[in-house]
Amino acid sequence: MAVLLLLAVLLDRLFPLRLPAPDTGSTVVLARDGTPLRAFADSDGVWRYPTTASKVSPLYLSALLTYEDRWFYRLPGVNPYALARGAFLSLRGGRIVSGGSTLTMQVARIIMPMPHTVAGKVVQVFRALQLEAHLSKAQILDLYLNHAPFGGPIQGVEAASWAYLGKPAERLSHAEAALLAVLPQSPSLLRPDRHPDAARRARDKVLRRMHDEGLWSAATVHDAEMEPVVARSLRAPLAAALLAERLHQQQPKSRRIVTTIDANLQRAVEDRVSNYLARLPPRTSAAVLVVENTSLAARVYVGTAEFGSVQRLGHVDMVRAPRSPGSTLKPFLYGLALDDGLITSQSLLIDAPQDFGGYKPGNFDETFSGPVSAAEALQRSLNVPAVDVLDHVGPKRFVARLANGGIDLQLPQGAQPNLSIILGGASTRLEDLVGAYTAFANGGIAGTPRYVPEQPRQARRLLSPGAAWIIRDILATNPADVDGAPIEGTINRHGAVAWKTGTSYGYRDAWAIGVADGWTVGVWIGRPDGTPSPGQYGAVTSLPLMFDIVDMLPDKHAYAAQPASVRKMDICWPLGGAVSSTPPALCRQRRSAWTLDGALPPTFAERDLTAWSAGLANLRVDAAGHRLSATCHGKGEHTVQIARWPALATPWLSTDDAAHAALPPLAPGCATDSLDVASPIRIAGLSDGARLRQAPNSTKPLHVTLQALGTTGEVQWLLDGRLQGSSLGNANMHLALPQAGDHRVTALTRNGAFAHLSVRVDKP
């Protein structure tokens, strides 16, 4: 006995076991419920999803051990009786009929292939004994569960269950358990996707064995035999493909990577994106990220519209690709201005041509609206008011606050933060934007999206709870028409969803981001190579898809409680003070505003002032109401107050508002004062109310040549509120009147002087 033991030890040392390394082989990336998202084959092209006996259906284990080796737990890896019976049958038949292999012997052949010969059988027995000496029964069983062949590139019961049945091995029926138990006996001949009849006969043999052994009842076996053998076409899973690739690159040695992705939502959104992109221009791709606000866990990650597509550059992950954010940063700017006490939700801003130190922004639709509230400016994504607010906040400070909240803007090389940032003059990533937008549901605290359960929750303060709540309310009550222009006065049916769109310069990027209590959804659509897609912008391209995805999500109609720091107060235009403390004569318009910490900031002062200051004017007048300059006095002298509108707002004021804001004329004999610096101008070249007609048979627009008289400075020219260009002094300005109908021409100087006229163009 001692000699045999010594010989066994010597052979074990000379011919050591070669077990599969735990950190090599294929990798599977899983959804949070264990559904495979993507499998990465090993160097041999094998798909294997790591598992253990505790994660496999007891029905399968029972069928496997009963059919293959019912003495597995009682014998040391070799069954002498079965070997002897196999040898006798083989000698009588002249060929190997039954090998008498135990489950341990099968594992030995799987991990160390050997020929089906007598010598091979001897080696197999030796290796089986080695396995039993070095490993526990549980470890040997796990080796079988992970490495047994199931046809094609599939190894292991978990990979086979997903590949053929589309379900985890822990949820197998009796029939499915019997099928997978017998399949490794002859995986090529019994593949259910190619040979369903042969697979069924083999399965039923296992079912009858289970009945004969008294393990499954006759009724159970009868029902299982009635179940058809239906297998999916053998293919690797390919959902959230770019996220899986990203995580695989980050964890190259991990064989099993569990993500936070919801498998059902992921498949539904991928299908919706694929169908939606079919109507968009060629080479268009899309990215979608859905994050659960409380946990910051990503439940949907679509990095491309079509993975692997050469035309759509389907290998580029647009969730983390730097792109121009368009107007999607504006909510954070207005929130920061609220926190700084610069504005309320209804503060008066001016949407008119302005010069910010040589930077002259325009709006997306090239029109201007004059006086607007901060809420309307944000909802309509007006550019000039946003640049005005950023000029007061400070570009460097704004960029620093965004970086603290997780949005690390990438500026052009050598550039410093400037006013163009708020209009998309920098780059950021969809995942950064989505993480920051969660602040509007989380009391102003932004976070980093989490892709694996073990990833720590990273959160940081971006806005105060009150500012975040006010901005969310503004974005949730946006009256925009999602199928048309950015705003058309219709009611948003997604009232509990706060949303913002953005479009980068040249129609290169179309964005839509929505926030509900439970979810934040980000959508990007464009071309990964950065080429333009004319006519494709956020409100008409990305927003409908974003709302479609929101409709798929549960629990989206709750709303966060109003913080104690937020109050509703009535304020007055143009001054900005409370109605309760403003004389009625100075309160030209009343607005119901959300205020933060009771702050009621005044309307912004004029920029580059050359004429007069917006705000409250205290004037001395005589008994006739004439203005008295500094050294001038008159009979019945007294003081009056006038609420002045910002100069650039005057072309849009009603006749009544303009009259109440007008300065009284100077009293006769009084010297001029600085309030008269804004000299009046007039338009030459056309008379107010003129009627024009295009030449017969002409298809070209009618052109007119105009001049602004009474100024030596720059003049902005607007046609129907749309900026057409500028002129200097009385230089000629050529305007095209492209269509028949009524038109309004406005000339506006930097100090607020303006003139306008109406003209009608008749059809030829």
Automatic annotation (TrEMBL):
Domain of life: Bacteria
Catalytic function, reaction form: [GlcNAc-(1->4)-Mur2Ac(oyl-L-Ala-gamma-D-Glu-L-Lys-D-Ala-D-Ala)](n)-di-trans,octa-cis-undecaprenyl diphosphate + beta-D-GlcNAc-(1->4)-Mur2Ac(oyl-L-Ala-gamma-D-Glu-L-Lys-D-Ala-D-Ala)-di-trans,octa-cis-undecaprenyl diphosphate = [GlcNAc-(1->4)-Mur2Ac(oyl-L-Ala-gamma-D-Glu-L-Lys-D-Ala-D-Ala)](n+1)-di-trans,octa-cis-undecaprenyl diphosphate + di-trans,octa-cis-undecaprenyl diphosphate + H(+)
Protein name: peptidoglycan glycosyltransferase
Pathway(s) per entry: Cell wall biogenesis; peptidoglycan biosynthesis
Pfam family, one: BiPBP_C
Coiled coil: none
Record's keyword terms, sorted: Carboxypeptidase, Glycosyltransferase, Hydrolase, Multifunctional enzyme, Protease, Transferase
Lineage start: Bacteria, Pseudomonadati, Pseudomonadota, Gammaproteobacteria, Lysobacterales
Family of this protein: In the N-terminal section; belongs to the glycosyltransferase 51 family.
InterPro entries in the cross-refs: Beta-lactam/transpept-like (IPR012338), Glyco_trans_51 (IPR001264), Glycosyltr_51/Transpeptidase (IPR050396), Lysozyme-like_dom_sf (IPR023346), PBP_1c (IPR011815), PBP_C (IPR009647), PBP_transglycosylase (IPR036950), PCN-bd_Tpept (IPR001460)
Penicillin-binding C-terminal domain residues: 678-759
Species, as recorded: Dyella agri
Gene name of the record: pbpC
Penicillin-binding protein transpeptidase domain segment(s): 316-514
Glycosyl transferase family domain sequence ranges: 44-211
EC numbers: 2.4.99.28
